[in-house]
Write a structure and sequence with these properties.
Layout (H helix, E strand, L loop, with lengths): L3 H7 L4 E4 L7 H4 L14 H17 L3 E4 L10 H17 L10 E5 L12 H13 L8 E5 L13 E4 L7 H14 L2 E5 L5 E2 L2 E2 L1 H8 L3 E4 L7 E3 L7 H4 L8 E2 L17 E4 L7 E7 L5 E7 L4 E5 L6 H11 L10 E4 L3 E5 L4 E16 L5 E13 L4 E7 L12
Parallel strand pairs: 1-2, 3-4, 3-5, 5-6, 6-15
Antiparallel strand pairs: 7-8, 9-12, 10-11, 10-13, 13-14, 14-15, 16-17, 17-20, 18-19, 18-20
Length: 406
């Protein structure tokens, strides 16, 4: 859960402990009560895809890692050792390429925001932990996490989409810095729930309204924070209505599945549009029957309010397009990129179209060492469920010979 973008800005390295289970442990944990929180690999091929994913994520994010053998021998098969040998070659090659951040979506976490919630709040899980796992990284955008104060850094990348999930206790200086940055970069800022609502132990809706630029009000009830999209002629209509007969509902999480969903929360927030004709309403609170998803053009930037957690990948992608972000992939698979490297872990099997943000002399699968593209800015590739693609896309690099077995 470390905001890795903050570490980059601070010039810090990170070292992560993975305890990724392999198929060897399946029999030991399949009936374990917490086993419902993750899926166990079924065979050594899936083991390899997970190990490859873990390593590729660490390489893309410029970190270091080790695997913690939480169950004895769970990385002991020849297939595991062979996978690690390939990872070592890919990691040595990665030291020779450009791993700077690709601007896209910046998620700004407010550390103080957690203190405005009860301990182990379900809303906290849904806004940050669960959203990080299931939503942000599945949007097809380049996505990085920071602390809210980082937007004031002169080295902060020129992201076009800013997502603010839990800024309940954001300071005036931090809010002003976010808005100033958005004006400078003509960005879209997505405020979730109620930024700045908690001050001196009390609720200040006026402050929230000033930050968002719309009249935000609350209803003091506890209910499931679902939002139903509504038809309108606006920039997000394609997301809201891919089929004219459908109205999409989002917000919260998959309640009943595990402890990482919002369930019923309160109070609930909505947008009062009675005296502001500049607000474009995109969705209605299912519990309140009032606008809870809307945006407003603020001159040089756009303010978006979402009165619920759990913004789905398709909506994040639509918001990214509104902001002018590059979309690398649109199939809701887990994706991480840096300037020269791309990682995609397949959620749904089938053909994947990957659109690079530059023309590459060569595209190389770093696991197999095979060339999968040349002089191109896009590739089409078929992937199985859980399959991991980790590739280099850039100029011809003499260090590619490091991928060859000696």
């Amino acid at each position: 859960m470390i905001p890795l973008g903050s570490l980059r800005l601070a010039g810090k390295a990170w070292l992560r402990d993975f305890d990724t289970r392999t198929s060897i442990t399946r029999a030991q944990h399949i009936f374990h009560p917490v086993g419902r929180l993750w899926r166990f690999p079924e065979d050594t091929w899936q083991d390899q895809q997970l190990l490859w994913r873990d390593a590729a994520y660490s390489i893309v994010k410029a970190g270091a890692w080790w695997w913690h053998e939480i169950n004895q021998g769970m990385y002991s098969l020849p297939e595991h050792i062979g996978c690690v040998e390939k990872i070592n070659r890919a990691a040595n090659f990665a030291l020779t390429v450009d791993r700077r951040t690709v601007p896209g979506c910046a998620v700004l976490i407010d550390p103080e925001g957690y203190f405005a919630l009860s301990n182990a709040s379900r809303l906290s899980y849904a806004l940050t932990y669960q959203s990080r796992q299931l939503n942000w990284t599945h949007s097809g955008l380049s996505c990085e996490t920071y602390c809210v104060k980082d937007v004031q850094s002169p080295d902060f990348p020129p992201h076009k989409l800013l997502l603010i999930p839990n800024a309940f206790r954001i300071s005036e200086a931090e809010a002003d810095a976010i808005i100033a940055y958005a004006k400078k970069n003509r960005a879209v800022v997505v405020w979730q729930m109620a930024p700045g609502v908690s001050r001196d132990g009390s609720i200040d809706m006026g402050r929230t309204s000033e930050i968002v630029g719309m009249a935000i009000k609350l209803v003091n009830i506890e209910a499931y924070p679902g939002i139903i999209t509504c038809a309108a002629d606006h920039a997000l209509s394609e997301f809201c209505h891919p089929d004219e007969l459908d109205q999409l509902e989002f917000g919260g999480g998959p309640s009943q599945n595990d402890d990482s969903s919002s369930g019923a929360v309160g109070p609930l927030f909505y947008v009062d549009v009675t005296e502001d004709d500049g607000v474009v309403v995109c969705g209605i609170s299912k519990a309140l029957g009032l606008p809870a998803f809307a945006y407003k053009k603020m001159g040089d930037w756009t303010s978006v309010f979402v009165g619920a957690p759990g913004i789905p990948p398709s909506l994040l992608r639509a918001l990214g397009r509104m902001a002018g972000c590059h979309v690398f992939n649109a199939t809701d698979d887990s994706l991480h990129v840096c300037t020269d490297l791309l990682l995609l872990n397949c959620k749904n099997p089938g053909k994947k179209e990957i659109l690079f943000n530059k023309k590459a002399d060569v595209v190389i699968d770093l696991f197999t060492g095979e060339e999968i593209g040349r002089n191109t800015s896009a590739i089409d590739i078929n992937l199985q469920r859980f399959e991991t693609l980790f590739c280099y896309y850039g100029k011809h690099n003499p260090s590619l010979k490091l991928l060859c077995r000696k």
